[in-house]
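Recall that a protein's primary structure is simply its ordered list of amino acids. Everything else, from secondary elements to tertiary packing, is in principle encoded there. The following example makes that idea concrete.
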Amino acid sequence: MARFTWEQILNKNRIREYKGSKRAVDCRNEFENDYDRILFSASFRRLQDKAQVFPLEKLDFVRTRLTHSLEVSSIGKSLGKSIGCKLIDIAKDKDDSLTMHMVEDMSNILACAGLIHDLGNPPFGHFGEVAIREWFEDKLKRNQDGSFTFEDDKYEFQLDKQEGLDLLNFEGNAQGLRILTKLHFVIDRFGMNLTTGVLSSVIKYPISSVELEESGLKKIGYFKSENKVFQDIAENTNISRSRNPLVYILEAADDIAYLLGDLEDAFNKRIISHDIFKKRYEAFIKEEGYEEKTLEESLSFYLSKNYEIAKEEYGYEDPGEYALKSFIIKLNNYLKEAVIEEFISSYEDIMNGSYEGDIIGNSKANNISLFLRRISKEYVYTNERVVSNEIVGYNIIHRLLDIFIPAALNKEVKPFKGYDGKLYSLISKNYRFVCENNLEQQECSEEYSRILLVTDFICGMTDSYAAQLYQDLKGMNV
């Protein structure tokens, strides 16, 4: 593995270069151009009605995938600028030094990456991915040669090893790459045609489903249908088997956003109270053996102090709300500081592709992050309302797959012709065009491409649309 260079990481090349030059009035650089392409895309807008934690949520203050992505974008850009400015001095005598202009590029890439990092997630949160994977577990049988047999009531056929493993390991990250490079069919077959610098920064797992079995990782970065585009990105940015260094910053920004965002949302929904959190945090400090004057101890004092200020000085109706939200702001700064320190101290390993683990997990903030994860797991992710809505979403996705997969597998299907044709006509014209014209997926079997057409359709749905479509098809709203 060759060492990463900033020229590779900040690569402005696109899968398809412009046919003509940019207009003189357009002063944006390539990454600012990418940001605007993303922001004005239908795929990004749909995130406003996709769950972050609370599926089918009616309260408007709870985070959606859209607001979460905006927060990740902001945190990522901030981290990128802070880290980059420090690296200017650290790397000034090295062959691969940075300029302030390059730091701006770094922060702009991370701003883009934050917007699109969850673009491929299906409706109903991460449990939607589980629903898709488990549906295929029931349909695919592995053969001795490594291939798979798909068996349904109407169809039986073979898929090769990677095609079968793609479906069994279905992953929102891989679907996101597919959306960005193919499905967002507006101008041509290259999707949004973003820079390879931005695209590589969201490939958290630069491996295929075939490599997954040997890698020890849990997720894949691309499907067989995107083999070629991944190779193009990897060639431009040197990520053939190692993460782009900016991925570590994006991952940390994502962790900070959801660790603190989930806590605040849970508090607003009265799932967790200030008193419960304070009691658990004080127990955490005692358990970890923190000494007085440490930052963790100071944070505990800060939590108590702000409660008293809100109660005694402001006469705030709910001093616990003021105290907890002020604490979250303080903790946000602490987590970002820990990420910056860890990236700088591990800079050589990160650039050499030998860094192991994640930034927050290896930083001074690891224990606090584990505490926050534990709180969310105990009070938020296992909340009865959250779990019941996830089950509803799971069943909706299974029923939609039951309905649309057989229609898509009908090789004689025509839009609006017969029952299968009427179902087929409900699928996005863009997605159908990609499938019918076999765009950039000539090495894939027709059956695999037709199955992906349905998963494309479902992953593009918002929570509300998926629920509404299911009810309509079942005749519940007649």
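DSSP finds 22 helices and three strands in the chain. The first strand starts at residue 140 and ends at 142.
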